[in-house]
């Protein structure tokens, strides 16, 4: 029923928003949206990295408008070429329907009726091809498929991280047959290039983490019941500190999940769910523990220790499933704390790097560290060069 309502909603919008189509499309206007979960639209994810690159490399060429939930958060960042507009207002609809190019990480595309002479770029918000999306789940219905078809017709370009994503996610699940830009994800450029020092410093300053501590990031994905089974962080720290090191735990819940950080030790851990940039947290983390999250793709390019804590693996397989068998992922699967502690103790850096490199090859990685440059070139061609042709 929920999917049907969303499908019907998109059809009604086509009629209600028609008056905005009377305004001319501005060839140098770009509109950005970054969905962060639930109803949160932030200056974030792939669109933000691309927006920042365009402003730096193409100064005064474009006027950029961001549709966000709370524009007041970004007033200090506004400049003559960068503006923040409240999401889902008449003003936001005006800019969305008069921009030559719209860049999104998935938001708006499945329901918003863009114009034929506009270009919609979907950068998506997850790398690799891991957990299945709604249209590929066992309980997907007619309305869900119709939404996917509408979304596919709305998009002129999808930015892909790897061949597996192109084939199994975008071509099959998205039902998309248009152009795919095989360049990697804009948000991963600095990770692929290994430029993590600035992000590491920023995260440590934000949470006052002394340099004597190494950082463990725990970042689980979303579950339909809203809850996840937390590892025993006290036990983990004991294992990690057996060789004399000091460790600090960062916990980042999925935006759809319930807050379950009450058990964290404030002396050596912090809830970083509200931190605006996941990539910076990955850059700062010396170790990642997750489950089925696509953040493993992003983190893999740092070649650092990563472990999959999956006590509900059988249930998750039955309800969601994966595009690539989880046993083919490059990181150890740990279905209980005993497994997790054992895998941490036996971690081998050389074997870890070899497994990751093999995984990148099997997935057909497109990551090059130049995704922002590639997408920016495409935008210039479609917005300015095409108009002058």
Automatic annotation (TrEMBL):
Pfam families in the cross-refs: Glyphos_transf
Coiled coil: none
Compartments it resides in: Cell membrane
Domain of life: Bacteria
UniProt KW Cell division keyword: no
Gene3D superfamilies: 3.40.50.11820, 3.40.50.12580
The UniProt record lists the keyword Glycosyltransferase: no
Record keywords, A-Z: Cell membrane, Membrane, Teichoic acid biosynthesis, Transferase
Membrane topology: Peripheral membrane protein
Major location category of this protein: membrane
Family from the record: Belongs to the CDP-glycerol glycerophosphotransferase family.
This protein's name: CDP-glycerol glycerophosphotransferase family protein
């Amino acid at each position: 029923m929920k999917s049907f309502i969303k499908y019907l909603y998109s059809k009604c919008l086509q009629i209600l928003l028609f008056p905005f189509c009377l305004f001319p499309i501005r060839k140098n206007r770009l509109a950005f949206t970054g969905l962060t979960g639930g109803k949160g639209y932030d200056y974030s994810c792939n669109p933000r990295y691309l927006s920042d690159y365009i402003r730096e490399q193409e100064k005064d060429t474009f006027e950029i408008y961001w549709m966000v939930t709370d524009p007041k958060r970004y007033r200090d960042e506004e400049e003559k070429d960068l503006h923040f507009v409240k999401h889902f207002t008449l003003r936001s609809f005006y800019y969305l329907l008069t921009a030559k190019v719209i860049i999104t990480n998935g938001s708006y595309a499945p329901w918003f009726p863009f114009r034929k002479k506009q270009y919609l770029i979907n950068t998506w918000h997850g790398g690799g091809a891991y957990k299945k999306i709604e249209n590929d789940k066992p309980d997907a219905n007619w309305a869900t498929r119709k939404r996917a078809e509408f979304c596919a017709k709305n998009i002129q370009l999808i930015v892909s991280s790897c061949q597996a994503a192109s084939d199994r996610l975008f071509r099959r699940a998205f039902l998309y047959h248009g152009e795919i830009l095989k360049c990697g994800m804009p948000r991963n450029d600095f990770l692929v290039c290994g430029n993590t020092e600035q992000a590491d410093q920023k995260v440590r300053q934000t949470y006052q983490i002394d340099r004597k501590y190494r950082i463990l990031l725990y970042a689980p994905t979303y579950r339909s019941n809203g809850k996840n089974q937390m590892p025993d962080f006290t036990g983990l720290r004991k294992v990690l500190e057996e060789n004399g090191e000091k460790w600090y735990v960062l916990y980042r819940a999925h935006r759809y999940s319930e807050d379950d950080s009450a058990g964290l030790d404030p002396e050596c851990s912090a809830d970083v769910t509200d931190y605006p940039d996941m990539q910076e947290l990955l850059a700062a983390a010396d170790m990642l523990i997750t489950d089925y999250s696509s953040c493993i793709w992003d983190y893999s390019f740092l070649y650092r220790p990563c472990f999959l804590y999956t006590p509900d693996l059988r249930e998750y397989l039955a309800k969601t499933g994966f595009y690539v068998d989880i046993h083919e992922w490059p990181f150890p699967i740990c279905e209980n704390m005993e497994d997790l502690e054992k895998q941490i103790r036996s971690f081998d850096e050389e074997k870890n790097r070899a497994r990751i490199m093999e995984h990148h090859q099997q997935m057909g990685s497109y990551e090059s560290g130049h995704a922002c440059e590639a997408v920016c070139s495409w935008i210039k061609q479609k917005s300015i060069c095409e108009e002058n042709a």
